[in-house]
Amino acid sequence: MDARLDLFASPATGKVFKHFAAAGKAITESSLPAATQELVKIRASQINGCGPCLDMHTKEALAAGETPTRLHLVAAWREATVFSDAERAALELVEQGTRIADAAGGVPDEVWANAAEHYDEEQLAALVVLIAVINAYNRLNVVVRQPAGDYVPGMFA
What we know:
This protein is an all-alpha fold. It has helices spanning 11-28, 34-48, 51-63, 68-72, 85-98, 109-118, 121-144.
């Protein structure tokens, strides 16, 4: 399978990716736990059907020490016992933020309040930006049918 468009060869997308990378670096440097960041990226990518992002973020999570069991259970996090209450709040927020068109009123207050019980304002801000950025990456990859499977951890570092 070939991508419809080479996003890495386009000067326009090259400029955009530099800004996305800067946003990603700011999130990475925030106090939002790294494991939570990867879980959020994985869950949004599952919902959006983004193979390249799933390939990247599952491999990065494994390389950082995440367990295969937790990664296998991200899609079924509500039934899984391997996630903390804070991680569960982040996973609910990413689901609501990713499926925003499905909810007439956007992210429900209860979901926000639950996340706010576990994360401070800096972490909440990082979480919101992370949700927006991973959804943007997902959409770019899905639209151009970017193939997945050959990612090597750290290759875009």
